[in-house]
Amino acid sequence: MVALIRLTGYVTKSELHFCFACAFEGATRDDPPLDLDPQFQLFYLAKERAVANVKPRITLGLPDHPRCRALIDGKVGIEGYELEIDPNFVSAGERHYKYLHGEWDVGECSAASLLRAIEKGQQLLAIPVFFERGPRQRNIYHCASRLSHPTELKGKKFGCFRYGATAVVWARGFLLDAYDVKTTDLHWFVSGREVFIEHELPVKVERIDPPPPFGQEKLTLSKMLSEGVLHGAVVPGDSGYLGFFGGGSAPLMMAKYPGVKPLFEDSEEILRYTIQTGINPIMHVVSIRREIAERYPDFPAKLTRAFKEAKQASAPYMEAEEIAGYKKEREALGEDPYAYVLGDNEKRTMRALNRYQIEQGLMKAELPIEELFVGHV
């Protein structure tokens, strides 16, 4: 207020009243009041222009992924909005946990956990941007000398890093559809911390208390597989072309203990199953809080468009092997799984994820998948 008085030199009673109204009651007018001093009218117009030029600030929790690095680095932006991006996380699980517990306006999130949070009543939506996709067969591990066929898992102790993790939901769904191995056929052990589970589970789950920090769950499972304590386990693994064709870091880490390897390694069979079912698992999806989408109705589509631009600018952030791997994946599938659209494949895939979670006791209702997505471009 002192600054305003210094700017004008003096203020009338009417001007002072108006000044307090603007400052403390959020008063705005299309035109300055007629009884204001001309000099104060100039200040008022300048103030109105300044307010009009303030950009809404949107906070985002995103992975340090090549397809969004241009956004993180500021090379791609969104007109009319200021983006504040946090890309620093120990693991994806940590990021998903923080978003579903109230951090950020926009967050890259576990697809399975997002559906559960929405069913519970969290006011969340999604845009059709999927960083991580791909089959989960290679995420299922065993000890080579102790298991020869997936049906032998029935009645056995099976481990995972989180019961409600999207990779685990997809792996259980695959075992159900392909080998009739139900969730309730197995005895469950969990090595890590859950992100979001609301319902009582249909199976008894043995857990480590306290769980290890995010990112340290794999080696516990590998050791237990090698020792014969577990007969199988699902770990967070490599997505995309690595899920189809093999490689990546997960097999090397899990192989630290003797005999531990993926249960499914036939690339042609994995690809055939994906094409035959028309389900290409979606792991992570970009979510936006409903209040943000409603307050700024142009923002979701602009955000999707920005991710498309960042994807087009991703090559400099990738190794030659990555570029070749994604090209091979596109050619094998006959489409781009990262086109950032909610097409027939994506709808079918999300409905399957919903169905699997109901079978596994993680959800109770089928959600209207198409209504949960906004920002189509």
What report would you give on this structure?
- The chain is of the alpha/beta class and 377 residues long.
- It has helices spanning 2-8, 13-25, 38-52, 69-72, 92-100, 111-120, 166-179, 218-227, 241-245, 250-254, 267-277, 290-295, 299-312, 320-333, 344-359, 369-372, and strands spanning 57-61, 82-86, 106-110, 124-127, 140-143, 157-160, 187-190, 205-207, 232-234, 260-262, 284-289.
- The chain folds into three domains: 2-52, no CATH class; 57-131 and 280-372, D-Maltodextrin-Binding Protein, domain 2 (3-Layer(aba) Sandwich), CATH 3.40.190; 137-277, 3-Layer(aba) Sandwich (D-Maltodextrin-Binding Protein, domain 2), CATH 3.40.190.
- Helix 7 packs across helix 15.
- The longest helix is centred in the last third of the chain and has 16 residues, at 344-359.
- The two termini are 46 Å apart.
- Residues 1-30 have low confidence and may be disordered.
